[in-house]
Amino acid sequence: MKAMNKLATYQMTALDQPFELVTRDLPTPGTDEALIEVAGCGICHTDISFWHHGVPVRHELPLTLGHEISGTVVAGPPDLVGQSVIVPAVLACGDCALCTTGRSNICRRQKMPGNDFHGGFASHVLAPARYLATVNAAALKNHSLAELAVIADAVSTPYQVVQKSGLRADDFAIIIGVGGIGTYACQIAQSIGAKVLALDIAEERLEALNQVGITETLNIAKLDIRTAKGQVKERCKALGAAPHSWQIYETSGTKAGQELAFALLGYAATLSIVGFTMDKLELRLSNLMAFDGKVIGTWGCRPELYPEVIQLVAEGKVQIKPFVETFPMSRINEVFADTLHHKFTKRSILLPDFN
Ligand SMILES: [Zn+2]
Ligand SMILES: [Zn+2]
Predict the structure, then answer these.
(1) Which of 88, 102, 173, 312 has the fewest CB atoms nearer than 10 Å to its CB?
(2) How far apart are CA 316 and CA 141, in angstroms?
(3) Ligand 2 centre and the CA of 103: distance in Å?
(4) How far apart, in whole angstroms, are the C-alpha atoms of residue 118 and residue 43?
(5) How far apart are the C-alpha atoms of 214 and 218, rounded to whole Å?
(6) Ligand 1: centre distance to CA 154 (Å)
(7) DSSP of 77-137, one letter per residue?
(8) 306-322 pLDDT, tens per residue?
(9) How far is the CA of 67 from the centre of ligand 1 (A)?
(10) Residues near ligand 1 ion, CB 5 Å cutoff
(11) How far apart are CA 329 and CA 352, in angstroms?
């Protein structure tokens, strides 16, 4: 049994060091805050970057990481207490010029769990209440609340970019890299009625997509850019999609993926950059002029869009279960190390198992 009024957590104390189990008194929510009992917290590559690669967190150490959180509100605004919720990874202020003009995902006063304040690798999280997204019973029909934790980043981020890119039914949507983000980008594009082609260098990731009805895949592991481009064109033709106005989503966050993505950008195409790498590319930007093309970036997801994302899951248009694996939170050190060493093909979700 969980201690009644204690918060237990695994904290990051220093770069690359094991997470430390700490117990403290349960915090009392202030105005506009909610205390959430964590159901599950996903491990994102950003957590690995904080823990291992030295990307600085904004809160001083020790800090509890984790920004893909689902749980049940146990204290705070009365209308939220008892509700199942997702904690958005981007918690905007809601009032600034960016927030009030539809760009809340890039709000400069935004707070991110496990970066600005203690995150989800814990029994409880104290978070701003304003944008907590309630989960309806339909969304819990095929998924546990813990599995829905990945909505907070892995599912909502591609949702936002697909919206931003203006993807329409029958468009040819090319997703480069079907890892944690790309698998959902494929499903979201499919839900709109686009003709989806998934590209990756790992056959097992491409095969996993069959479970959710994504059957057009291309393994680009051994293909140079010119050959890959030729094969993508053939697939486009076979699918009966237009040879122009392609919607390209770069979700691999690799130099090779970005090079291919830019090479695929043709007439009236839109390239969305979703993955992140520090690597630089040499590009002929004038292709954008010649092809009347567009390149867009995206950061996280506007918290206002979460109900739409949850609805897609409730309707079964986005499936999470085939792409996640759960572990007891007490195995956090082992699971982080294995994530770092690319031992998982599925996204890991840690479930609190504190005594
Ligand atoms: Zn993340
Ligand atoms: Zn704001």
Answers:
(1) 102
(2) 10
(3) 8
(4) 15
(5) 11
(6) 7
(7) STTTTT-EEEE-SSB--SSSTTGGGT-GGG-TT-B-BTTTB--SSBSEEEEESTTPEE--G
(8) 999 999 999 999 999 99
(9) 6
(10) 44, 46, 153
(11) 5
Tens of pLDDT, residue by residue over 236-253, are: 999 999 999 999 999 999
Q: Which tokens hold the place of 155?
A: 């599912």
Distance 350 CA to ligand 1 centre (A): 14
pTM: 0.94
Å from CA of 285 to ligand 2 middle: 32
Name the closest ligand to CA 42: 1
Give dist(CA 347, CA 181) in Å, integer.
10
Ligand nearest to the CA of 151: 1
Which ligand has the nearest atom to the CA of 96?
A: 2
The half-sphere exposure of 135 on its side-chain side, counting CA atoms within 13 A, is 28
The two three-digit tokens of residue 118, written as one number: 């203690």
